[in-house]
Amino acid sequence: MAEIKVINREGQEIDKIKVRDEIFKGEISDTLMQLAVRAYMNARRAGTAVTKSRAMVKGSNRKIFRQKGTGNARMGRKRTNIRTGGGVAFGKKQRDFSFKLNKKIRRKALISALTSRFEDFIILDKLVLDRPKTKEMAGLKKSLNLPAKSLFVVGLPDTNLDLSIRNLENTKWVSQNYLNVFDLLYFDKIVFTKDAITDLDKRMEL
């Protein structure tokens, strides 16, 4: 069992908790992490880019001029892709870029990311805000000496936390059940609340 210290808002150690080695000290697979990041990024793509084909462009099907006798190169309808204003050959079409990873791969990729970033974890005893206050979260980052790119992982969604963090640049929060490989690899420091890392440890046991 790996042991992690728990600190308060002033950065003082107040407790220690144990987490399972198979989750936070497991095997690291760069291939699975890369797959998980690709799946995350692809799912975020809108896939709405589209161009008009010959069939979609307005215009007559009539031949522009007769085949012979004009001195011009032969030409068909004006919607052809070789004329200005015509359709686009092999143009973009709306598509879904997302692809699915099975449960075992997602779990192993998350374990790989948790293991690779284990040294960058900070465990906070609790993170409760009485009201939305960006200044309070900015002060917490300063007191914990956190870098600009910081991720806060909490047990349950919190509206006050959301409203307090969203105006801080490069700072994000996520509940532990939505924690993903991309966020774990992107942010420089990951701050877990004590209940979040305990819940995550139990969830990964399933």
| CATH class category name of the largest domain | Alpha Beta
Shape: elongated
Secondary-structure element string: EEHHHEHEHEHEH
Please give the order of strands in the largest beta sheet.
2-1-3-6-4-5
Corresponding CATH architecture of the largest domain:
3-Layer(aba) Sandwich
Keywords summarizing the entry:
single chain, 206 residues, alpha/beta, Ribosomal Protein L4, Chain: A
Structure description:
By secondary structure, the protein is an alpha/beta fold. The protein folds into two domains: about 1-45 and about 100-205, Ribosomal protein L4/L1 (Ribosomal Protein L4, Chain: A); about 45-95, no CATH class. The protein has helices at about 20-25, 30-45, 105-115, 135-145, 160-165, 180-185, 195-205, and strands at about 1-5, 15-20, 120-125, 150-155, 170-175, 190-195. A six-stranded mixed beta sheet has the order 2-1-3-6-4-5, with helices on both faces. The radius of gyration is 27 Å and the shape is elongated. The two termini are about 20 Å apart.
List the topology elements.
Layout lengths: L1 E6 L5 E7 L1 H4 L5 H15 L58 H14 L4 E4 L9 H10 L6 E5 L4 H7 L5 E5 L5 H6 L2 E5 H10 L3
Helix pairs in contact: 2-3, 4-5
Describe, in short, the structure shown.
With 206 residues, this protein is of the alpha/beta class. It is 32% helix and 16% strand.
